[in-house]
Design brief:
- The protein contains 17 helices and two strands.
- By secondary structure, it is mostly helical.
- A two-stranded antiparallel ribbon has the order 1-2.
- Helix 5 crosses helix 7.
- The longest helix has 43 residues.
């Protein structure tokens, strides 16, 4: 049976009194590991991007090329993520995911041979970014299909896997550069990224692993069948498919728009920071090992925070939006504090604190999005990816222009703090407006 249409068979399960529900475990744990590997390899190598390509950019046109590559990367990610959401209407998780993994690895292969910044923009930015963009909706949608009650705890757990890569990649890349040089290091990174193919292969349709729910009333069975999944004809025109996936009516809800914009600006700050912090440290005349150790220290702190969050949320319910808000506020302050001194002990301390806080943004952003549109997560995720990616496509090159004009990273980090400020101000205004209406 073609896995893309497994849900047609899933509707036949049950005896009329039994409904099938998400397993909330079982094969879902394997899917969770696959999602973890996706973000380990997707974000792990990106976390070491500044270390890996520092010498390359210095030989080309200076560090201003870095924000351009990052901006194009996230722009390609957003467009591909949007198209991936459309493709998931017709094809299975695995089919779409394997296309993404293939593009990601192809980008790795082509990047080995780049000689100029514009080539890196195409290979790493466009192709690799598009590959990761395709895999993100696959991973999040599959995850949300398999888990309901354990969603927060399991999301924290698989995000913990990605932070483990953030710990090891900077040191690993530094070691490989010293031992094998730039080109062979790129080849070895490509070999590691091949594991994404296996991560996508385990993304079975959830209908293959549904379990029987406790006995319920006939009316409840009818309602359940109407809701885990929407079974739509594949005969729809392309325009109709795009219309269904965009679901612009979500933008009629001011609270959703506030969430979308706030998440987008916070995400821009976080992703750009990861890429540019190593460049800041190199400008302080730190050695490659010192830079790698500092980045690793922040990643270890991030891992510790994610582990604590996973354990805590397993037993207690937290308000994801409030935690995200507080984390973004602290992050805004830390971006400014980091540039006040180049003392290595001071920088290490701020980086570690930033790592502790960062999990509130990286782990909780999909959960904040779920609370904003609980019954329409795929559509909400598509809009988030599209908005934040386009925002990065504009903001990151602007940060590069700021560096080119000033020759300093200070104003670049101030710009990242401003991105956090947008989220803080917007959500604060929203809170008071809706509190008065209540």
């Amino acid at each position: 049976m073609d896995e893309a249409f497994a849900h047609l068979e899933g509707n036949k399960q049950g005896d009329g009194k039994k409904a099938t529900v998400a397993p909330d475990g079982g094969w879902g744990y394997v899917v969770c590991i696959g999602v973890g590997f996706t973000f380990m390899l997707g974000f792990g190598s990106s976390n070491a991007f500044g270390i890996l390509f520092n010498s390359f950019f210095m030989e080309q046109d200076g560090a201003s090329g870095l924000p351009l590559v990052i901006g194009v990367y996230n722009g390609a990610l957003s467009i591909a993520g949007f198209l991936s959401g459309i493709a998931l209407k017709k094809y299975s998780f695995r089919q779409v995911g394997l296309v993404g993994a293939g593009l990601f690895v192809l980008g790795d292969i082509l990047t080995i041979f780049v000689q100029r910044t514009y080539q890196l923009v195409f290979t790493f930015g466009v192709i690799r970014g598009a590959g990761f963009g395709v895999m993100i909706p696959v991973s999040f949608t599959a995850f949300n299909c398999y888990f309901t009650k354990k969603r927060t705890a399991m999301m924290s757990a698989n995000q913990t896997m990605s932070s483990m890569a953030s710990i090891t990649f900077p040191i690993l890349v530094t070691f490989l550069l010293a031992e094998y040089g730039f080109r062979w290091t790129l080849a070895l990174v490509m070999a590691i990224d091949l594991h994404l193919l296996f991560a996508m292969i385990v993304m079975h349709p959830v209908e293959w692993h549904m379990i029987k729910a406790p006995e319920v009333k006939d009316d409840d069975v009818i309602e359940i069948k109407k809701s885990p999944l929407r079974h739509e004809s594949i005969q729809k025109s392309i325009i109709k498919i795009i219309y269904d996936n965009v679901e612009l009516d979500l933008l009629k809800d001011p609270k959703f728009v506030s969430t979308l914009v706030g998440l987008g600006f916070a995400f821009v700050s976080d992703v750009t920071y990861l890429a540019m912090e190593p460049m800041l440290l190199f400008s302080y005349q730190y050695s490659k090992m010192q830079v790698a150790t500092c980045v690793m220290a922040g990643a270890i702190a991030d891992l510790a925070a994610r582990f604590f969050l996973a354990v805590f949320t397993y037993f207690y319910t937290v308000d994801s939006r409030k935690v995200f808000f507080v984390g973004t506020f602290i992050t805004m302050i830390l971006r400014i504090v980091l540039i006040l001194s180049d003392n290595i002990t001071y920088v290490f301390a701020i980086t570690i604190i930033s790592g502790l806080v960062r999990c509130s943004v990286q782990v909780l952003f999909p959960l904040v999005l779920v609370t904003a549109a609980p019954d329409r997560f795929p559509a909400a995720l598509a809009l988030h990816i599209l908005f934040s990616g386009c925002l990065m496509l504009m903001a990151d090159p602007m940060i590069g222009v700021i560096y080119e004009a000033t020759g300093s990273y200070v104003n670049c980090f101030i710009a990242m703090s401003f991105c956090c400020l947008v989220c803080i101000v917007l959500w604060t205004v929203e809170y008071f407006v809706y509190r008065k209406k209540a």
